[in-house]
Amino acid sequence: MKDLVSIITPCYNSAEFIEETIQSVLNQTYENWEWLITDDLSKDNTVEIIKKYNDPRIKLEALQQNGGAGNARNKSLERAHGRYIAFLDSDDLWYPEYLETMTNYMQENKVELVYCNYSRCDEHTMQPVLKDYLADKIVTFSNLLKTCRLAPVSTMYDTQRVGKFFFPIKSKREDHVMWLNLLKEIPKGYPVKKTLAKYRMRENSVSRKKKNIIKDQYLVYKDFMEFSTVKSLYYTANWALNGFLKYSKIFN
């Protein structure tokens, strides 16, 4: 039997999009997965929508107190039993071959971490608004300091080789901190040069408001990596420049 994949999903007020996300998982050609969804005290009918699906692989936990996306991901990770950890936010989508392609690459090449191309789409139409983000470089701790090439929707790692990695709940850049901590322990993450996921670019997404999170990014280096002030400012400047380039080439 193929190894179990644990899919980690936090959700909060996701009723508008969650059914599309659920369908993208149900359509996977790789069928040995468990889906650990943690609802972060949604105020809409997200929980009711998820409960309509009777698939025993979908395992919902509804929190009684809102704790943020990092905390919700950690709650899912605590319940995960799979060899492979995959992340899917409650408004993003995978192509049907996502899990199969990613796990096959890791098994065939005996690597700990992989990431793939993903489409960057309008939140309502799901049509591309930017060029696909390309998985075109081997990722290391060093180059991940300057720009976060790893997105939850397009990245998977092998717990059998590296164990579980949790998110810091006191950072608004929790995914970047987690990837950096992981890449302290392994030499490289490898690109799968195929577009296998769709990222929904939300107007109210924290990750889109670059000017508002410069301080949070600085704290990634200063507080979590424990760099000096000068070194932290250097990497923050690099991150800001790369972030501008990442989102500036609109072609619609």
Taking Cα atoms only, what radius of gyration do you get, to the nearest Å? 17 Å
Globally, the shape reads globular
CATH level-two architecture of the largest domain: Alpha-Beta Complex
- How many separate domains? 2
Task: Report the sheet with the most strands, covering strand number, pairing sense and barrel closure.
Answer: 9 strands, mixed
List the helices and strands and how they pair.
Blueprint: E1 5-11, H1 18-26, E2 33-39, H2 46-51, E3 58-62, H3 69-79, E4 84-87, E5 93-94, H4 98-109, E6 113-122, E7 128-133, H5 141-144, E8 155-158, H6 159-162, H7 174-183, E9 190-201, H8 214-224, H9 229-248
Parallel strand pairs: 1-2, 1-4, 2-3, 6-9
Antiparallel strand pairs: 4-8, 5-9, 6-7, 6-8
Helix pairs in contact: 8-9
Protein name: Glycosyltransferase involved in cell wall bisynthesis
Organism: Chryseobacterium polytrichastri
Domain Glycosyltransferase 2-like: 6-127
What's the quick description here?
With 252 residues, this protein is α/β, with parallel strands linked by helices. The chain has helices at 18-26, 46-51, 69-79, 98-109, 141-144, 159-162, 174-183, 214-224, 229-248; strands at 5-11, 33-39, 58-62, 84-87, 93-94, 113-122, 128-133, 155-158, 190-201.
Name its key features.
nine-stranded mixed beta sheet, 2 domains, 23% strand, 35% helix, 252 residues, globular, alpha/beta, Spore Coat Polysaccharide Biosynthesis Protein SpsA, Chain A
Question: If you had to describe this structure to a student in words, what would you say it looks like?
Answer:
The longest helix is centred in the last third of the chain and has 20 residues, at 229-248. The protein contains nine helices and nine strands. 35% of the residues lie in helices and 23% in strands. The mean pLDDT is 94. A hairpin with a 5-residue loop joins strand 6 and strand 7 (128-133). Helix 8 (214-224) crosses helix 9 (229-248). Strands 1, 2, 3, 4, 5, 6, 7, 8 and 9 form a nine-stranded mixed β-sheet that branches. It folds into two domains: 5-199, Spore Coat Polysaccharide Biosynthesis Protein SpsA, Chain A; 210-251. The protein is of the alpha/beta class and 252 residues long.
